[in-house]
């Protein structure tokens, strides 16, 4: 028995009202939201997404601005390399696709910073095509409900095959199943505290039927703590540059972090990534 019908019925009653799920939301808006949602919670993305689309409602609008403008507008979303990739994607869409976000997965994959998940998500949620869309939430639901495992483990090709088997042939229904299982993983079948008492597929869940066995497979790598990490130092440097209308002098950068080796390593990484440029011995966002 497929879990898809029960999950779709549950979503119809419990799915969140998110901007990218509303009728008329543009393909460009969907693409921007997918960039922003990578490793960033929904609650932080929504206000930044609205500001972004008000300023740059089309790819051509963003392409006409500088990469530095994109990085500055990215603000506190984290992983600012995504802002550079999104700007490069806007340029590519403007130059190669006449300003229209492409609808097919191969063309989407050819855009800077667009991986397999993002390409499938845009093709499905913006254009209604039939593809399995697999994020960590979907992988967790399938691991538990279908395979009886507490965690999904490392990503594998099998994830797409598993999701493909759950999709109806109907395009609208396939799109609905993708978003419904994703939402179930985000709200109910969560990683640490699954709400099995309210789960619409509890009676079909193989993990629950097996007595919730401990996961013994290979786990995904755990991200290192932010406090004291190179990521924190990079963030401090980026925040200083975003807040300044003038190039930031080396002594100002030195004042941001006391550990010389770590600060210089973080700065070197930002320079290598193109997020910071050196100008006459000082530093600024890319122009």
Overview of the molecule:
The chain has 287 residues and is an all-alpha fold. Among the domains are: 26-125, Endonuclease III, domain 1 (Orthogonal Bundle), CATH 1.10.340.30; 230-284. Helices cover 54% and strands 2% of the residues. It has helices spanning 4-14, 27-37, 42-55, 59-63, 67-74, 81-96, 105-109, 116-125, 136-145, 157-166, 171-187, 206-209, 230-243, 250-254, 260-273, and strands at residues 277-279, 282-284. A two-stranded antiparallel ribbon has the order 1-2. The radius of gyration is 21 Å and the shape is globular. It starts with a helix and ends with a strand. The relative contact order is 0.11.
In short:
The chain is 54% helix and 2% strand. With 287 residues, it is an all-alpha fold.
